Amino acid sequence: MWWEQPEPLLGLMPRDGRPTHRRRVIPGSILLLYTDGLVESPSRLIDDGIARVRSVLRDNPDRTGEDLCTQVIESAPRRADDIALLLVRLT
């Protein structure tokens, strides 16, 4: 379900320049940028962590941005790693 082929993580030096992509999104869509501490756990697949975050966002579309961030962080099975979030609701 990727729009584009995944690229190296931000902060890593890409071998080539990064391409620019544009997408149209519907009003009310949420963009969530986060660090790996939110989705990684030694006992689980990273895909499970990403699915957990997606589920919280999908099941709570009317919550405020602050409430969504709190709920996403609280859903993490362990919080030993740092977690940073940037949530943008498109209007």
Summarize, please.
The protein contains two helices and two strands.
**How many distinct helices?**
2
Q: Can you give the mean pLDDT?
A: 85
DSSP strand tally:
2
User: What gyration radius follows from the Cα positions, in whole Å?
Assistant: 14 Å
Which structural class matches the secondary elements?
Answer: alpha+beta
- What is the helical fraction, as a range of percent? 25-40%
Strand fraction: 5-15%
> Runs with pLDDT <50, length 5+?
none
Silhouette? globular
What oligomeric arrangement do these chains adopt? single chain
Characterize the biggest β-sheet: 2 strands, antiparallel
Strand order of the largest sheet: 1-2
* Element string (H = helix, E = strand): EHHE
Distance between the termini: 24 Å
What does this structure look like?
The protein is 26% helix and 11% strand. It has 91 residues and is α+β, with helices and mostly antiparallel strands. The protein has a domain at 30-89. Strands 1-2 form a two-stranded antiparallel sheet. The model has no long low-confidence stretch (mean pLDDT 85).
